[in-house]
Amino acid sequence: MLLEVRDLHVHYQKVAALKGISLQVPSGGIVTIIGANGAGKSTTLRAISGLVRPSKGEIHFDGQRIDNLPPEQIVGRGIAHVPEGRRVFPDLSVEENLRIGAFLRADKDGIESDLEDVFRRFPRLKERRTQRARTLSGGEQQMVAIGRALMSGPKLLLLDEPSMGLSPVVVQEIARIVADIADTGVPVILVEGNRHRRLGGQGRRPAHQ
Amino acid sequence: MSDFLLQTAFNASYAASYMALIAVGLVLIFGVMGVINFAHGELYMAGAYAVVFFYAGLGLPFIVAVAIGLVFVGCLGMLMELALFRPLRTNPLGGLIASIGFLLMLQTVAVLGFGLRNQNVPPVSQGRITVGGAFLTYERLYVILATVGLLLALWLFLRKSKFGWALRACAQDREAASLQGISINQTARYAMFIGAGLAGVAGALTAPLVAPTPYMGHTVIVTAFIIIIVGGIGSLEGAVLAAIIYAFVHTFVTTFFDGVIANIVGLLLMLAVLVVKPQGLFGVRERA
């Protein structure tokens, strides 16, 4: 297993957000987590990427325990998190947003070729590479957020509600891209709230308590 | 009359320069760390006292004393980040209150070390440029040139270097920045060094012109807050533009009426901006 989450508990102050979730992600394909608002889907991803510290439980990635690492080191291990609400840097240009995804990388040639790769996946971003991210549409911002995550050269991609607030056409486009990413060998954990408009319907679904 | 206008414009350019240095540092610290640094005026004071000690006291060259002021106050800033702002990061008012405490400590240290009196700093240069009937002393010219140089260097650093990008990314979304592998602690440390260092340089450069006292920070901090509110909190470009606007308005009103009226006009300017454009000249409305 690429990622193993065991009996994960997260508390915000004294309120429990997660009470013992376990999941396993193989090194290929899409794992989808579906649940109602407040079920703890985002919290699960935030614990994996280190944004919140679990109060109990373990997270193992690539054979190593990561639940005690800060987020900036977890990215370095190969987990890229596309957070809920996209969270692009509004006053950086599209290209700067993408390049900052490669912040920890030193391989210049690899960064350039990955940037070309992202532009190939999202031709619209290439057209808008000098534009500030705040001027983009929601769908384009989602593309920037996904592209930024890909720029870190991840071994695992976490996607938190990428279809939120987007039109059906754009949702389909994003779905195609996510499937494509999984096909090219980067496994994806996808969190979706809306059962009717979710992405990656053909993926694996672990039981969710 | 035109000589008189030119003279006033020279004076305003000088005031705009050092105020821009102070305000930009304040904005940078607020942007990256979300802390309103009330001790910023005292960092400016500490820079001035570095010149009092190393230039007026020990007789080192002025430029060396200014460089020491930059590094010394920059390090003071990093110390504040480490000892005060980092442990209090999750407390929305913690940094502000701790900075008020630190302000009082810095003032007290200055009083204990140098006394309450105004410090006499010998002139760096007697030279001046004369244009018609107006003149600009070299001392003031140095402040203007150093400001332009430092702000240009800062701009290049923020646009072109990797850590500059990290600073901007942190200022826009700290959590998303950490997801890109940017260390918030390290970035905060850089921001504090630069922000505090700029205040220190402003104090060091103006020391020969203002006769430093331990309480000189009070006057600049109020002005600096007006400037960053007018410019749009979080905007470096806004802070520079607002410093220029404020300094020109203030200097011209002082020259043609008097200083008290100039202060009132400065505050009215801030109120007017808040009424017409609450997010400031360059500010962006907060996302809901």
Distance between the termini of chain A: 20 Å
Helix/sheet category of chain A: alpha/beta
Largest interface: A-B, 27 and 18 residues
Q: Which word captures the global form of chain A?
A: globular
Task: Let me know the largest β-sheet of chain B.
Answer: 2 strands, antiparallel
Strand order of the largest sheet of chain A: 2-1-4-5
- Give the uncertain stretches of chain B in residue-range form: none
Helix content of chain A: 25-40%
CATH homologous superfamily designation of chain A: P-loop containing nucleotide triphosphate hydrolases
Characterize the quaternary organization of these chains: heterodimer
Which structural category fits the helices and strands of chain B?
A: mainly alpha
Radius of gyration of chain B: 19 Å
CATH architecture of chain A: 3-Layer(aba) Sandwich
- Write down the overall mean pLDDT of chain B: 92
Strand content of chain B: under 5%
Under CATH, the topology of chain A can be stated as: Rossmann fold
Topology order of chain B in helix (H) and strand (E) letters: HHHHEEHHHHHHH
Percent helix of chain B, as a range, is over 70%
| Overall 3D form of chain B | globular
What are the low-pLDDT stretches of chain A, counting only 5+ consecutive residues below 50? Answer: 201-209
Number of helices of chain A: 7
GO molecular function, one term (chain B): transmembrane transporter activity
Subcellular location (chain B): Cell membrane
InterPro entries (chain B): ABC_transp_permease, BCAA_transport_permease
Membrane topology (chain B): Multi-pass membrane protein
Keywords:
heterodimer; A: 209 residues; alpha/beta; Rossmann fold; 4-stranded antiparallel β-sheet; 4-stranded parallel β-sheet; 7 helices; 8 strands; 33% helix; B: 288 residues; mainly alpha; globular
Question: How would you characterize this protein structure?
Answer:
- The complex is a heterodimer of chains A (209) and B (288).
- Chain A is α/β, with parallel strands linked by helices.
- Chain A has a single domain, classed as 3-Layer(aba) Sandwich (Rossmann fold), CATH 3.40.50.300.
- In chain A, strands 2-1-4-5 form a four-stranded antiparallel sheet, covered by helices on one side. A four-stranded parallel sheet of chain A has the order 3-8-7-6, with helices on both faces.
- In chain A, helix 3 runs parallel beside helix 6.
- Chain B is an all-alpha fold.
- Chain B has one domain.
- Helix content of chain B is 75%, strand content 3%.
- Chain B has eleven helices and two strands.
- Chain B has a two-stranded antiparallel ribbon.
- In chain B, helix 6 packs across helix 8 and helix 10 packs antiparallel against helix 11.
- The longest helix of chain B has 32 residues.
- Chain B is globular, with a radius of gyration of 19 Å.
- The N and C termini of chain B lie far apart (51 Å).
- The model of chain B has no long low-confidence stretch (mean pLDDT 92).
